[in-house]
Specification:
It is a single chain. The protein contains 9 helices and 12 strands. Helices cover about 25% and strands about 20% of the residues. About 40% of the residues are buried. By secondary structure, it is of the alpha+beta class. The strands form 2 sheets. A 6-stranded mixed β-sheet has the order 2-1-6-3-4-5. It has a 6-stranded mixed β-sheet with strand order 8-7-12-9-10-11.
């Protein structure tokens, strides 16, 4: 197998503390690729209609991408998915860092959680071997403190995604953090993780990620990198963000979390590099 994907996912039933590996047919990857596409197919098939987003029937998934770990540029983000408690519909959030390749190096394209644990736990996947461990000693700790503790408990080399007190208390604006503060923040999925009493996911693996033609992937990546260097600067908003693009794509969430246009976004995007002046007239240091 040299297609860029690992070919299977891990299911974790938190209610009965059971694990199950599921092989995904090649035609599913051909149709949905991996990452969000694979997750959308699975969740649409497995979450029953009317399921409570904060109940045991909801599924929480952590997925990597098809090109992650292949040497391709700009492909290192992971996605967390589930039914959103904010909207009652599809929910996802993404984040960078080291977790995305760690999912695949444990041998999986995604890890999916069902049920609700009786007590707080975290999942450790150590070189493909899953284990649920007690997380009582981590309750109340923020995500950085949690990550530091779990890296030590896992032997010093693990990658960690965790919730803090907001997720534990089912705040609908809570996210899931990795790499000391990177956060998958949308859709209220930190609350879904908290509702399952899942404090963290800890990954430690060294599986090789298959690539059909590694040398060609490297050549294309170098070519892409040179092309990017020749492009004109992107139009940045007042805080350096790409305000115009998501506004044009109707991708700014409105006040209740649903997607829709927001007129202020356009105004913010036009305030390119205006100085941030405090009320007392001082300009904060850059």
């Amino acid at each position: 197998m040299n297609q860029g994907y690992m070919g299977k996912i891990l299911w974790v039933d938190l209610t009965v503390k059971e694990f199950r590996e599921e092989e995904i047919p090649g035609e599913i990857y051909e149709k949905y690729l991996s990452g969000t596409g694979l997750a959308a197919w699975l969740l649409s098939e497995r979450i029953p209609a009317g399921a409570d987003p904060l109940g045991p029937e909801n599924i929480l998934g952590f997925v990597s991408g098809l090109l992650t770990g292949t040497g391709s540029l700009f492909t290192g983000r992971w996605m967390v998915v589930g039914k959103s408690p904010l909207t009652g519909g599809w929910g996802d959030a993404n984040c960078g860092g080291t977790l995305s390749p760690a999912i695949k190096r444990c041998g999986f394209d995604g890890i999916f959680f069902t049920g609700v644990s009786e007590k707080p736990v975290y999942l450790l996947v150590d070189h493909g071997r899953p284990e649920l461990r007690d997380a009582g000693h981590l309750l109340g700790k923020d995500t950085t403190e949690t990550e530091e503790c779990l890296v030590v408990e896992a032997g010093g080399h693990a990658r960690v995604a965790a919730i803090g007190p907001a997720g534990e208390n089912l705040s609908l604006i809570s996210g899931i953090c990795n790499d000391r503060g990177r956060i998958a923040a949308r859709s209220g999925l930190g609350a879904v993780m908290g509702s399952k009493r899942l404090k963290a996911v800890v990954l430690n693996g060294k599986k090789r990620i298959p690539v059909y033609h590694r040398a060609e992937m490297q050549r294309l990546s170098r070519q892409c990198n040179k092309w990017v260097q020749l492009q004109p600067p992107l139009h940045l908003g007042v805080h350096g963000g790409l305000c115009g693009y998501p506004h044009a794509r109707s991708a700014h969430p409105d006040g209740d979390g649903r997607y829709g246009l927001q007129d202020p976004a356009e105004k913010v995007g036009d305030r390119e590099h205006e100085p941030d002046v405090r009320r007392d007239g001082a300009t904060p240091p850059s």
